Amino acid sequence: MSAHDIATAPPAAAAPPATARPHRLTQLDVLESEAIHIIREVVAEFERPVLLFSGGKDSVVMLHLAAKAFWPGRVPFPVLHVDTGHNFPEVIAFRDATVARLGVTLEVAGVQDYIDDGRLQERADGTRNPLQTVPLLDAIAAGRHDAVFGGARRDEDKARAKERIISLRDEFGQWDPRNQRPELWNLYNGRHTVGQHVRAFPISNWTELDVWRYIEREGIELPPLYYAHDREVYLRDGMWRAVGPVSAPLAHETVSRRTVRYRTVGDMSCTGAVESDAASVHAVVREVAQSTLTERGATRADDRISEAAMEDRKRDGYF
Amino acid sequence: MTDTLLTEAVWPSALQGSPLQGTLFRFATAGSVDDGKSTLVGRLLHDSKAILADQLDAVTRTSSERGFGGAAGGIDFALLTDGLRAEREQGITIDVAYRYFATAHRSFILADCPGHVQYTRNMVTGATTADAVVVLIDARKGVLEQTRRHLSVLALLRVQHVIVAVNKIDLLGYDEAAYTEVAADVRAVTAELGLGAVHVIPVSALVGDNVVDRSPHTPWYHGPSLLELLETLPLVDEIESETRAFRLPVQLVLRPQGAVVVPEEDAPRYRDYRAYAGQVASGTLRVGDTVTVSPGGGSTVVTGIDFAGAELDLAFAPQSVALRLRDDLDIARGAVIAAAGTLPPQVKELTAALFWLDARPLAAGARVLVKFGTSTIQAIVPEITGRRSLDTLAIETADRLEVNDIGQATVRLASALPLETYAENRRSGAFLVIHPQDGATLAAGIVLAAGGAS
């Protein structure tokens, strides 16, 4: 009866109830249709939506769903990447190839630009994830975007478990978790006043495993570092960190070459890899189904700062 | 895997690369911490192995830091669902939290609804999207006022499956007679409220009796465990695909006018592509069926059902599809495409039950917006006809509705809609009441009667 069994049990062990109905959708079908419905609602009700697109798996799935929602037409909104300047080069290459293939416009907000001209300062711990909030809010204002699609999921974090699918932000981009609109049936309320915008999370109800199964089912291409590969790494805070220009090992940290993969791809300075020999999407689905750690617990240093790290960043306007 | 055969037929890639997929079942839990709700939720997640090691570590650590010596093995399960800082600091659950877990048969979305604070708002939020609601009661206390209120809301919202978990049965020494008495009280109340088949289960969330596995401590109970029940109850959408007429509220018109993503050699085929996109609200539609469109009342034939490049033979709830039609009717966002001859007449007046969710009260004469399906229109509430006593469900006179009240009112619409009652069609008969200036969601509404006071 565990998630483990789903990936390994032979089909006979999971025979459906005897009353199988002719009209039956799998959970992926239902989640896909729910997401497409939400994406279409936002496009119908807002003037200038934009999709946050980092090249990470959740945003890639979001773009795939948007492409399906408007087929055979093009995706009718641009994508926005808040680039910390510390991204994995192969992810940036993937990002550029993907938007070119789909004919989507890419907007980039660069954290590096803000640091260069002094609007932001590098943090002592070197991580740039929390620095993304200001460039994000500036880009939303500059693009006059009234709706911002994100690939956040409720299973990622306790604060995200309380997030609405259509979530209002005030003119400072802030989230007020104690004063959220109730969401009823599948009727989404996107009304807002001048200066406010909404964040829309069409894959709120997907789990990490759902995302991977969907990637497998749809044959969606991802940046290669999601799959097992050899890399120079060192151990810090229980995570394998890549050796790179912004993630150099300290004197006491030993570098070794290991077979790893990434469960999330973000800023190189705070994203860790896990040891894995899952080199194909099918192997990753099996691995995720059997995992005993959450993806953020396993790979994100910035979420370990405090119990409410995500809530605090979200209140300030983070993704 | 026979449960996915049809999907395989309509969406060929659905089964590629195997791992088994089940259906998706949504349920909500209602009750208070005192009833052991957090423990029950924690038990379900824990015993179905949905709590991962790092989450369990964090919760165990915080529990011991706070000196939580609870009998649940020293783990305060409420910490798993209390996601906001204010909730943890105050030790209360403020908002609905969503949790996800899966068994070999099904994936589950659990909406955990707090019982005390703003219970109407949270219950309504959880119940409107749920296939089932689990109401928890303390076996020692039986049916309390709060239980009656929870069950009243579920009855009004016509929740498909209501499960009453009689918790802490271990504290009654697993006494059959004591349980039978509580179960009889539950059935008396649910019968009075008009709730149909209610499932009553004796459980101990703390010990795990009848939560995931049937318990040896209750040999006199012959029904399923809670999880067995959740794994086998039919989904609302599956029931309504078969028993309700086809309805599709149009979200937008897909008309790419040459800007297409299909391969170049196929592009000419899509030059004049026009399809009506939306999510099937109820019923089933086949290519070749005749449909009626509102507004306008025109009829035409479905020539194609598209799902992102795949042509389907049939569509049913809750699929998001795009319909191609034989004739060029005037159809825009807000229109409803329905099985021929099934749409009710358009009306501008209705009687509604309103679940009032905003701190600002409603007074007669208020101007609001209402959202039905994909159509948002102006409305006036000329008259508040009463407020429901949640203890007796009787209608009392009232001239305003306060937050958490469930009231009755007449509503006049700026333009006519083909209204159905909520009893006839859950999707068509449900609406939002929205503040016309700041956009707040003021109320959940359900149509009791179309065409003015009955």
UniProtKB/TrEMBL annotation, chain A:
GO terms for biological process: sulfate assimilation. It comes from the Bacteria. Keywords: ATP-binding, Nucleotide-binding, Nucleotidyltransferase, Transferase. Residues 49-272 form the Phosphoadenosine phosphosulphate reductase domain. One of its GO terms (molecular function) is sulfate adenylyltransferase (ATP) activity. Its EC number is 2.7.7.4. Pfam families: PAPS_reduct. Belongs to the PAPS reductase family. CysD subfamily. PANTHER family: SULFATE ADENYLYLTRANSFERASE SUBUNIT 2. NCBIfam families: CysD, PRK05253.1, PRK12563.1. This is Sulfate adenylyltransferase subunit 2. It comes from Cryobacterium psychrotolerans. The lineage of its organism: Bacteria, Bacillati, Actinomycetota, Actinomycetes, Micrococcales.
TrEMBL record, chain B:
CDD domains: CysN_ATPS (cd04166), CysN_NoDQ_III (cd04095). One of its GO terms (molecular function) is sulfate adenylyltransferase (ATP) activity. InterPro entries: CysN_GTP-bd, CysN_NoDQ_III, G_TR_CS, GTP-eEF1A_C, P-loop_NTPase, SO4_adenylTrfase_lsu, T_Tr_GTP-bd_dom, TRAFAC_GTPase_members. It comes from the Bacteria. The keyword Kinase does not apply. It is an enzyme of class 2 (transferase). One of its GO terms (biological process) is sulfur compound metabolic process. Its EC number is 2.7.7.4. It holds the Pfam family GTP-eEF1A_C. PROSITE patterns: G_TR_1 (PS00301), G_TR_2 (PS51722). Keywords: ATP-binding, GTP-binding, Nucleotide-binding, Nucleotidyltransferase, Transferase. The keyword ATP-binding applies. Coiled coil: none annotated. This is sulfate adenylyltransferase. It comes from Cryobacterium psychrotolerans.
